[in-house]
Amino acid sequence: MTTLAVYDIGNQKVSDIELDDRIFDAKINPTLFYDVIRMDLDSKRKGTASTKNRALIRGGGAKPWRQKGTGRARAGSRRSPLWRGGGTIFGPMPKDYSISLPKKVKRAALRAALSLKRQEGKLILLNDFPLEGFKTRLVLEILKRFQVEDALIVTDERNSFLERSAQNLPGIEVLRYEGLNVYDILNHEHLILLHPTVAKIEGTLKS
């Protein structure tokens, strides 16, 4: 078991906590990061770009002119892609870009991301993050005590004061443990976990 210090918002050590090595000391596989992040980003693509092919263009039922005798090139429809206002050849159509991965792979990638932050010394455990109102300046002061400018803060439950207070801080994101994902962990320099979230994360990732 790995032991890590737990701090209060004044950057004073209050206790130690034992971390499950299966979660916070797992094997780091960059390939897993690539696969899972690609899945997350692809699932966010809307894929709504659309153009009209010749079947979707209005009109063109009648042949523009007779086949022979006019001196012009033969034409069968005004919807031809060769005509102005005609259909588009091989244009983009609505598409679902999302891909799926097994749960086992996604959990392994999440364990690897948590282990990477711990090995890099970028994992900070806080006993609590008490706020009595929307105090952006107070959140900024607390983060400065830990010399943190870019961080993902993970809470165990809804904390509207913290979520709203950190909303305008660039590089700071507040996320509940249910939504913890590889992309957000690796997209921030530091990972800050509130003490109660550790047991919940371990309980989710052990299976």
In total, the number of domains comes to 2
Question: Which structural class best describes the helix and strand composition?
Answer: alpha/beta
Uncertain segments of ≥5 residues (pLDDT<50)?
none
**CATH H-tier superfamily of the largest domain:** Ribosomal protein L4/L1
Number of helices: 7
What percentage of amino acids are in beta strands? 15-25%
Radius of gyration: 27 Å
Report what the structure shows.
This protein is of the alpha/beta class and 207 residues long. The protein has 2 domains: 2-45 and 100-205, 3-Layer(aba) Sandwich (Ribosomal Protein L4, Chain: A); 47-96, no CATH class. The protein has helices at 21-24, 30-44, 103-119, 136-145, 160-165, 182-186, 195-205, and strands at residues 2-7, 13-19, 123-126, 151-155, 172-176, 190-194. The longest helix has 17 residues, at 103-119. The two termini are 18 Å apart. The mean pLDDT is 92.
Write the layout of secondary structure elements.
Blueprint: E1 2-7, E2 13-19, H1 21-24, H2 30-44, H3 103-119, E3 123-126, H4 136-145, E4 151-155, H5 160-165, E5 172-176, H6 182-186, E6 190-194, H7 195-205
Parallel strand pairs: 1-3, 3-6, 4-5, 4-6
Antiparallel strand pairs: 1-2
